[in-house]
Amino acid sequence: MSPMAAFGDGASVLRAILFDLDDTLIPEAAAIRGALAAACGPLEELAGLPNGVLGEAVAAVGQASWQALDVTGIDARFGVTWEECLWGRFGPASQAQIPTLGALAVMLRRQVFTDALTACGVRSPLGGELEARFAMERRKRFVPYAEAPGLIQSLRDRALLVGCATNGASEVQREKLAASGTGGWFDAVTVSAEEGVGKPDPAMIVKLCEELGVSADQAIYVGNSRRRDVAASRAAGIPSVLIERFEPEDEIPNPGARGARKGVANPHEVPDRMVFEVHGILGFVDGWRAGRAFRVVDGGRTPWSIDLPEPVDGRFVTRVGADDDPLRPLVTGSSPLAAIEAGLRSLRARGNGRAFRHELGEPIDWDALLR
Ligand SMILES: [Mg+2]
């Protein structure tokens, strides 16, 4: 699906915004890093280990142990991660949905914390203590991204439905939703283990649309993973927005967005739009609703837009400029995308380049365009 197709002919009515949960509305990778550091710190100090060494050992042993176990089905089918197995509670729902998961998690966490201590040369029976500390610290970090509550409120103000399709074990994802308060944000939620299969299979997104009473052309899907989120929403026929969030502490893109700038070979993983923080989707939403190909919202300034190009005498014509400007100039191109590109050049020429960095999309080579 091209970005143009994603905007359709302007006839469809946008009714619902669907979200991924982990690393989209609530931090997952950063919460794990934080919990590991907090749980391991006192033991590192006690054992005279350099700061962070034990946490790194837990991560290394955890990954290796997970790969050594036969978890292809659980990992690939449901998107349950080894980190979640270190702290999650797997009760009756998980037992019914993924029968081997509970026993597997118990085995994994016993092994991981003990082996990590051993790997650091600490001969002590503190594996159980470390396990308990990590679970406690992880549970202190069910906190949404700071901008997320305001975004949800903005979507509500626009009378949009809000849904969530999240990969993982039922009890783990439900605990995150409840403890973070995000559960109350959604009109409907689907969890991969409860549906029998997770993203990139589109089934749980299709089910979410059914529960919300919207069709695929009335929704957009927002997530942080090309492989899981973008692929699933494309398979469901729903335009996708990829969040390429930069973690302030390490200044590298989150793992789900790796390779985002290089041009991605797999066409199923190319999003219709990219944003750098979740609030950026408001520009996408407003542009869609206004029948615009592109909308730039920059702080308190008047939004700038590029209209959906229209065919005129074998070329495509669009208007570009501030929404309150009655004389927004026309630009043309040989194709709809060429017209949009011409519009972006025109915006940039007027010094508005910084703003639309927040609205990068593909497959247009924006970086080349903006150079
Ligand atoms: Mg995610």
UniProtKB/TrEMBL annotation:
Essential cofactor(s): Mg(2+)
A Pfam family assignment: Hydrolase
Domain of life: Bacteria
Swiss-Prot/TrEMBL keywords: Hydrolase, Magnesium
Gene3D superfamilies, alphabetized: HAD superfamily/HAD-like (3.40.50.1000)
SUPFAM superfamilies: HAD-like
GO biological process terms on file: carboxylic acid metabolic process
Entry keyword Lipoprotein: no
GO molecular function: phosphatase activity
PANTHER family reported in the protein's UniProt record: N-ACYLNEURAMINATE-9-PHOSPHATASE
Name of this protein: 2-haloalkanoic acid dehalogenase
Organism: Vulgatibacter incomptus
